[in-house]
Structure formats: structure tokens, C-alpha cells
Design brief:
alpha/beta; Rossmann fold; two-stranded antiparallel ribbon
């Protein structure tokens, strides 16, 4: 993959990003010709809707890695532009009360220096004018990065009990958009949704910058 001196990724690589566009499942947002895909009909998810901007394939995988682990913050500006240009229209008209980024544990935040989910949420807020709340959902366990774990069982065990809601009254009856950088197996998102649902929101939708392509 070409890497430039200024932008780290060449124009050809950026142009290879595969955006997610309709027609898609109205729930999970994956390409689908019917209103709701078979998987969502058979196994209804905890979220109301999930949307991602693009698939997690070579260019975005490299860009996210450079931003998160090599602290190439210049890339975040390009990712933010990608996000703001392609925000899903069906989410834009929902009227969310606030945006809720998936939090990092304080140890990880101190090590990295920023929360990528919060950066994404701030980018959305600039376009929609919806407040970002970082005082509600907290990560209380310093979990192992899920990318280092193989099986679904390992991921579930690792993330169990990782989140806590403080000030649940702020959630009750609210329309919430939960935001993260990557959706892979859904383990992290689902664990956060479980603790949020206890506080009885109106509904919780999910937006991620990117998501893995499902297995055929």
C-alpha cells in the first residue's frame, strides 16, 4: 500500500474504500434487497439500527491502525472528512438526544492519548449539532484488545462486565446514537448495549466508521 510523506496513504488507496450504501437491511445496514435481512429476522439485535460508513478492508484497516497505534493523528482528519461526507441520511433525520462514544479505560486512554470513538462522535456532532456525552458510559475493566483474541467465546469472556452506566436518569426515554470506530463481531457494542438497556432508553442506534464484511 502506498504511503505518502504527508497523508501516509496515497490517493489510489483512499479511492479503493468501499462505501456502504442502500439498498441495505433497515436494521443491520448490510447490503440487502429486502427491508430486513434473514439474520436480523431470525436473531433480532439489541440495537435499533446499525450503520457503518465503509467496509473494514485494506485502506481503512491501514488508516485506523496508523491512527490508533502509531498515533498518526493527521489521518484522523481524513477519516473525519470521509465520515462527515457520507453520514447515513436515515440516521440524520432521527433526532437523537445525544451521541455516546464507546469509552476507553482510563489506562488505555492515558497510554493512547485520545479516544478514537470520541473523535468520531465529535465529527458527527459538527454536522448534526447533537451533543456528545462522555459522562454516562464508562469502561471499568481494562480489557485485552479484542483484535488479539481469536474465538467468540474468548471475546465474550474478555468484555463481560467492562461497562458501567453512571447517571442512568440521563438515559431513560432518550434516543441515543452509540458510536465506535469498528464493528467486527459486535461483542463490544452488545456489551455496552446491555448496560444501556437497563436504564430504559427509548432506543439506541449504532454508528461506526467501518465494519468487517460478514462471512459468506
Amino acid at each position: 500500500m502506498g504511503v505518502g510523506k504527508v497523508h501516509y496513504l496515497c490517493d489510489d488507496c483512499w479511492e479503493q474504500i468501499e462505501l456502504l450504501k442502500p439498498p441495505w437491511c433497515q436494521i443491520c445496514g448490510l447490503p440487502c434487497w429486502s427491508a430486513v435481512c434473514a439474520d436480523c429476522r431470525e436473531h433480532p439485535p439489541l440495537f435499533g439500527k446499525l450503520r457503518a460508513i465503509a467496509f473494514y478492508e485494506p485502506t481503512l484497516r491501514e488508516a485506523v491502525h496508523l491512527m490508533k497505534y502509531e498515533k498518526k493523528q493527521v489521518i484522523s482528519k481524513h477519516l473525519n472528512q470521509l465520515l462527515q461526507t457520507h453520514l447515513p441520511e436515515d440516521l440524520a433525520s432521527t433526532g437523537y438526544d445525544f451521541l455516546l462514544p464507546i469509552p476507553l479505560h482510563t489506562n488505555r486512554l492515558r497510554q493512547r492519548g485520545f479516544n478514537q470513538a470520541e473523535q468520531i462522535a465529535q465529527g458527527v456532532a459538527q454536522v448534526w449539532g447533537v451533543p456528545v456525552r462522555t459522562d454516562i458510559l464508562f469502561r471499568i475493566r481494562d480489557t485485552v484488545p479484542l483484535s488479539s483474541l481469536g474465538s467468540h467465546e474468548e471475546r465474550m469472556k474478555n468484555i463481560a462486565g467492562a461497562f458501567e452506566v453512571r447517571s442512568p436518569d440521563s438515559i431513560q426515554g432518550r434516543k441515543i446514537l452509540l458510536i465506535d470506530d469498528i464493528f467486527t463481531t459486535g461483542t463490544t457494542i452488545n456489551e455496552a448495549l446491555k448496560v444501556l438497556q437497563v436504564a430504559s432508553p427509548d432506543f439506541v442506534d449504532v454508528l461506526t466508521l467501518t465494519r468487517t464484511r460478514p462471512s459468506p
